[in-house]
Amino acid sequence: xxxxxxxxxxxxxxxxxxxxxxxxxxxxxxxxxxxxxxxxxxxxxxxxxxxxxxxxxxxxxxxxxxxxxxxxxxxxxxxxxxxxxxxxxxxxxxxxxxxxxxxxxxxxxxxxxxxxxxxxxxxxxxxxxxxxxxxxxxxxxxxxxxxxxxxxxxxxxxxxxxxxxxxxxxxxxxxxxxxxxxxxxxxxxxxxxxxxxxxxxxxxxxxxxxxxxxxxxxxxxx
Amino acid sequence: xxxxxxxxxxxxxxxxxxxxxxxxxxxxxxxxxxxxxxxxxxxxxxxxxxxxxxxxxxxxxxxxxxxxxxxxxxxxxxxxxxxxxxxxxxxxxxxxxxxxxxxxxxxxxxxxxxxxxxxxxxxxxxxxxxxxxxxxxxxxxxxxxxxxxxxxxxxxxxxxxxxxxxxxxxxxxxxxxxxxxxxxxxxxxxxxxxxxxxxxxxxxxxxxxxxxxxxxxxxxxxxxxxxxxxxxxxxxxxxxxxxxxxxxxxxxxxxxxxxxxxxxxxxxxxxxxxxxxxxxxxxxxxxxxxxxxxx
Lengths: 222, 295
Fold this sequence. Notes:
The complex is a heterodimer. Chain A is mainly α. In chain A, about 80% of the residues lie in helices and about 0% in strands. Chain A is elongated, with a radius of gyration of 20 Å. Chain B folds into 2 domains: about 5-215, 3-Layer(aba) Sandwich (Rossmann fold), CATH 3.40.50; about 225-290, Alpha-Beta Plaits.
């Protein structure tokens, strides 16, 4: 049964599963080309000085891209379920509803997290070959809150998609947008680190939000 | 033999906002029966199906499917229930083959042949996406999936919606075939009552807020009649005997479950002189209009 649920989720999201890694790869390549161009123009030492003194983020395009990935994946996965109330078909399957929803959510989270891990590796491993560990570490600390935004955005978008009424969807969109700004604030590398456990805790809590929407959907709230 | 009703609805009361849909609705569906729920738009046909499947919480009351309350239907019972949503809604991003593969993963008794026997009669390829099909073709995909599931009960919400006469006829024939098999139960709604006549054993006619009638279809067809007559009276009130009496040109018409003599006696009792009274047998659609009125 779980295999069948995963199969359905794959059919819905297969285009996005190709588009997102392609987009991330293209942005990563562009970021490196830009980085090497700056090093070439300024010289490695001067460039390093700037990075250290001004706390420059080397991958600024990855500030909002993970959030976008989370929103896109959740939209592709859950909008078809809400269209014509197809979720009724999904919830009518001979499997516990909670298990169905957990499987669908874990599918999405797994894709997002896999994409992020590969991206982190693809960004930081080449960086480690050129720059000292301190700089690589600083860039990692800069990226990590932005990357945690992806599962948060995925779960919040799922919550809003499944929510049956616009009366709750609109405050949901406002609250979610506000919550996601905490993941993309600009700060010195590492300044965010004490805050990261709270961001992770938020993601764990956000995992429960879609269940609230499903419960409201099942009550037929309009 | 298990005599427990397949469906039990007890004292269902529901409102949308302040608008009453029904108060204290009660009915049962016995195993092996085909029961049709008829009603005008807005009388709550889809609402009762949603309540029954646990997709809507009524203001009060309980529905049970195979003895299980609607808000806690177990996966085992869901395995026995096939549902068709209004408009033959399906996961239309699948193609013909993919959707079969998907549902096959959930039902241990899945019968792939039952699905493909229906699909192979359509002019579609196995790789064709469901969202590129006509409404009639989609209805056959939905029906094929339901038959492959081998449920004990089919719950069909407005199965005739968007179907041309050929597909409607095909749908009705297939449902009859299904129900004749192994004492299966069918609970359905439709706007097109002429289809129901050939299909349903029992009939519930819903009016705004209540059940108007719950009877065997054959009983309605045999006993409910239209009477036309002439009279000088300006007003004939409805009663327990007469339904929806109205003037049409220079003649009047009324509907009743009583025979012509009882109807005539009823007029005499109210000092209404009637001439040329004639009695007419009705189709189920005419009977529905006679009971619920045209408006």
